[in-house]
Amino acid sequence: MLGSQKTGPGCGDAVDSQTVGQSAAARGGLGPSPVVKGPRAWKAARATQNDLELSSAESQFCSSPSRLPAASRRAMKSLRRHQCLPRQPVPSAAQLLGLRVKAHRQDTNDDLDWQLIRNHGSFLQTVDHLLGSYVMVNSSEHSAGRKARLIIPPFSENETHCIQFNYFLYSRDGHNPGSLNVYIKSNLGATGSPVWNVTGFRGQQWLHAELSVGIFWPDEYQVIFEVVVSTERRGCIGIDNILTMNFPCYEAPHFLNLGDVEVNSGQIATFQCIAIMHTPEIETVFLQRQHRGITKPVSGLRNNSSDITATFELHEVTKQEQDPYRCVTQSAKGSAVSNYAKLIVREPPSPVAPPRLIHAGLTYLVIQLNTNITSGDGPVIQREIEYRMNSQSQSKIQIAPYLIHMLRHLYLDTEYVIRVLLTRPGEGGRGNPGPSLICKTKCAEPLRAPKELTFSEIQSRNITLQWEQLKIDIVRCFTYSISVCYRYNIGAGHDQVVSYCKQAEPKVPRFTIKNLPPFTIIYVKVKLTNTEGSKRTKEYECRTDEDVPDKIPAESIFGIPGEHTICLQWDEPLEPNGYITHYKVSYQSTESSDPAVIVPSLLNPQLKSKNERYHMFVNLTPGTTYRFSVSASTSKGFGPETYTEITTNISGKWFNEMTIVLI
What we know:
The protein has about 675 residues and is mainly beta. Among the domains are: about 90 residues, Sandwich (Immunoglobulin-like), CATH 2.60.40; about 80 residues, Immunoglobulin-like, CATH 2.60.40; about 90 residues, Immunoglobulin-like (Sandwich), CATH 2.60.40.10; about 100 residues, Sandwich (Immunoglobulin-like). Strands 1, 3, 4, 6, 9, 11, 13, 15, 16, 19, 20 and 21 form a twelve-stranded mixed β-sheet that branches. A five-stranded antiparallel β-sheet has the order 2-5-10-7-8, with no helix packed on it. A hairpin with a 5-residue loop joins strand 33 and strand 34.
């Protein structure tokens, strides 16, 4: 109760407990003002004292109300019942107003203690200390930042109630004495952040505030008052009349029960806070987290005459944000606090092991999902298989209603990457894909051998053949090979067989066979092979083109010399390389016993038909050596020449004539 101000030691001065105690002792009967320390509990002195004073005042009011002091008469006017009250027993003012006074204790883990002030007599008149009994912290006596806490025992309420208290923040010269914070701790959990606070100079007067707490049985809560000394260290902060009332607050709204919110990780969690109010004086609404002291601003607010609805959205929540949250309103006249509701963040499930391959076919794969062990939270309501070709990035998804699933309509001989997806209830419930299985569909034996085999180019020593462009439905495997096999006969009787198989480029439907003998029949076939089998074409044949003939063997050339003639004969080339059309022979003298012969003489080429493998050279000079060359020709031209030398004969008569001439 607010009393008159009188002179004496003041806030802002160094007033110690002993000074207050001596003043109280002078008043007689109360003794030194106690400074409560440690775990020793004490009643709320001012509230209890008011009850006792008002109870005594009620009996006087019935017999002789004019005798009461003015302050007592004003106190009595606050009672709801103005008729004379029964003398035996005499109810307290708290009982008459439906109030409950709780025992209080100081926190043993704070920095300093509260002082109990009893200031009832005129001999303690002061310009600073307010009249009455209350608890106070004198900031002038303590260092900046030090804290004092007052703890009210736990509440466990069944119905709507309201906590009221009075407070002041005062200094003689208007300096900031510090801050007064109010905490609501639920179920002996973390203290959390303040639900209401006030700071700075507020004048030399008692102010009134209300706390509306929406926590009900079987849950319980505690109210903690905290004073923090300012850096200015001037003035006093006090509280008084901490009462619980069995009816709704008037200045602070009442929250309806706040329900738990369950979402999947990465989604938006939405809390909706609904508060019933009597006055629209709400300055702030926010969502408060129990741990770490984090608050979230309102995302949407709907306000009408009787209630407000505040919506809070937490975006892309993770497991680290899983915590109890509550709704809080603040104004200068008090605060409303809801119950704590849990934010439950579920991690979508994901397989720990990759799926297993049971069987591979040409266009299908049979997969066991292998989801016995998973990470994340259940329940699993849907299973899916994500698959793609290993050479591509785009995936497809199939729902897998059973633990064994067949992927159909796949490409044969194709490598696939397969993963399993699991989904739990709620938006964003699909988890990350599990580990990958890499497997491959099978090949089939080629459907047939290549068709349309033709010889596109034929040369004397090379031939080029080509075939149709092979498609996957023919080769039935992406991995395949093309072999070109050929053979031909050689030797005088064509009794020797030469055969080869050469690998062709699979994607190029042509191949050139090189280093073949000219004018020879070549037998060719093409073979298509994959991992499952092979198909061969029939044997095709072609003859290489003609080429110039090879040399005529030198040992096959012989001549029959005479004095003036030489008859030259020869055989055909061992490798005619085609049809022989002509032979060409020529000669020239290289050495002579006749000085009149010019050496070398001019060449004298002669053409012979294919059937004439001899020639008679006439009008030759006796005793002269001639050099002969012979070559054969086909339609491609003459081949290389073969050389031999033959000397004409010398008769005795010709020799004698030559001797006479020389003499």
